[in-house]
Amino acid sequence: MIYSDNERAIIWLDSFSALTREQKLKIINVTKNPAAIFENPSLIKECADEVVSEKFCDLLAASKDLCGGESAVRALEKNGVVALTCMSDDYPEKLLSCGNPPLVIYCLGNISLLNAEKSFSVVGSRKTLPEICAKAEEFSRELSENGVVVITGLAEGADTAAIKGALPSGNVISVLPGGFKHVYPEYHRNLFGKIVENGLAVSEYPPDTVSKPYYFPDRNRLLAALSDGVLVCSAGKKSGTSYTADFASEYGKNVFAFPYTLGVPSGEGCNALIKEYALLCDSVEDIFLSLGISGKKKADSVKLSEEEEKVFRCIKDGAEHIDLIIQKTGMKVFELSPLLTVLEIKKYVVKNPGNVYSAIK
Amino acid sequence: MLSKVTGYALNGLEGFKVDVEVDVHNGLPVFDIVGLPDAAVKESRERVRSAIKNSGRNFPVTRITVNLAPADTKKEGAYLDLAIAVGIVRTGSYGFPADITNYVLLGELSLDGSLRGIRGILPLLISAADSGYTEFIIPKENEKEASYIEKVNVYAAKNLNEVIDHLKGINPLPVVEKRKYRQEGESFTYPVDLSLVKGQAVAKRALEIAVSGGHNIIFIGPPGSGKTMLAKCIPSIMPDMDFEEALETTKIHSVAGRLNADEGIIKMRPFMTPHHTATNVSLIGGSQSVKPGLISLAHNGVLFLDEMPEYPRNTLEALRQPLEDGVITVSRAKANVSFPANFMLCGSMNPCPCGNYGSKKHVCKCSQAQILKYKSKISGPLLDRIDIQVEVDSVEYSELVSEKAEESSATVKARVNRTRAIQRERFRKEPNVNTNSDMTEKQIKKYCGLTSECEELLRTAFDNMFLSARARSRIIKVARTIADMDLSENIRPSHILEAISYRSLDKNNI
User: Fold this and answer.
1) Are residues B297 and B377 in the same domain?
2) Is A323–B394 a contact, with Cβ atoms under 8 angstroms apart?
């Protein structure tokens, strides 16, 4: 990746974590042409006012990396990270729609995904029910197979499910609330590797940044800005996922949410969103319609045998606990267990802890 | 005047002969015991002195030297009291036969001269009988324990005087009557029965498979879901122990001093539940005197680890080798002893630290990192040795009070016996393999041929359910057992499918 002098200057400036976004923006605006700082370091001193303190300006002017931002760029190249600055040509336009676009976004993976025609966020809380996770995965698969780039985070639960669904087709972007060197959560490092390999990971923080709790709302803003719409799979009462939805509606994008029955803690936020402004979503066609594409839902190729059908009906009718299924079908447990496993393999049901099965078709 | 008597002492599960030599000669009144006695043996001086006096006999007021040969082996415990006392009495008394070393004398003395029971009578007697001894005098308390050993004459005495009178031939003791291990029409009643467990059809089925194929099992479920109750039922559906097994188990319990004197032999399979604060040594065996640990006491029975992730990591890891070999070798500076430890491992755990993970009614308060940490406390290699992982659910109130008849342990046991017989027949020519769970990779290939349909099924299952690769051979082993229960020669797809459903801990996310 070859960066212009201005790009280098912005990358260099962005590597100072002590400066806020506003301060960096101020410096860029004052200098107009940030590359000029490399020529004439004293230029920074002119920026000194109530936004950027004099102390900071002195610090920047004394930076060893002043000759063309060499080491900041080298650090990126060493890790294969591509930086897109607000002065780059391929900076995604979608980001400009949000009030405070990041100065630089750092990308790792298939960078062309950023310019995809259609992109859609599938997000949810960490404690998403298994059957909802299965749904999220299914939706994400349908979307990605029809050329829509699925954008999500990296947390467990709905985010992971969305990634799982979209990974095979490669149409997946994961937006991180920290630098690539400090993947959060740590135990998703493997998953992160797969995303980098097949899809794209994006962050507005330089690779060395350790993620902090207050980075998450900023990350959600990015998620909402990058996508053409948001599907909220699950959200608790005080869920960060609602922030994503709020940002999206603020940017004028469609927000969808799964409906929940009463008394499901991980669905209270979703129902609240539907009450306010979100669109109720119970089929992937709803999303296709809003994106203006004629997505093809693959017909179910797997057929169920008569007995499998019988058990599946039972589960669908609300007999979810295995003891209830036994009672209703009159089968023995050793006859039932294989059938349930088949249904699980064929993705008709998911197993919840405690021998409870939920239908997902 | 010199007198020789034969005693026996314990080293691990084996007894060894101790020649007790007593010499009484002129000099200042001193009573010395030489030949590496431990504290309990040394203290026997006081017990022996008082016991002899209080039995109305003379204690020689001269120099007494007792030698315990072999001199270089440490002797522990109070088994030698009787031998020493008889040796001393014999030096100053008439009427004894010229040689009484054909008798093995065992017993601890009380100050009033009566005999107390000792631990380890069974292994001591078996070892002595193996080296050709036929005459034994033991405390009355241990009578029952000794009655199962054949081809020996055991005399049970209440006190020192009875022993001396018997040896002198004045008032011979009767030979302890032999007892048969299995009485006609005898049936065991275990404290818990499977019919008391309401509902839990999946867990019960898994339990039956586990016992039938000798698989280790772990129950995963919220608190109060009946995991412990289910585990306690395991001995009641295991096949009855044969005499050899019972003798081996009794030996260990006898050495540990945990034998019920009224029974004399352990007929029911042991069920051991160590608390998770148990130390390594108490579980594995060891301590100064190299005693068997709980895993050896669970030999031929069940070791139940409740709340398995709460056990310290090193304690759990220490179980790996005995789980593989069925034997634990305890090595200490003083001794190196092997104890059998062939047990069925049964564990239980919650789905997460708070226990509500995945519940629709309750909110789980644990973070994913906490849950992962909790689960990772049971290491992969240990989990590898647990073939069946089954989920137990909280029982609804309506089920607790339901009158629906549940299968009794006896019915299940009959089926287990049948399945075990099939396995015995199959592995007749394979040494060290008794059940399906003992199979090695090679034997799995030999005995568990899969049809192409089954292979295909396994592959789809692995792709779709994100099973880990190490689960494969476990699934096949369990499928083999299910096929045996089904009286099917070949493993059918339904068997594989059922086996897959018992791998709930294996499903990794991605």
Assistant:
1) yes
2) no
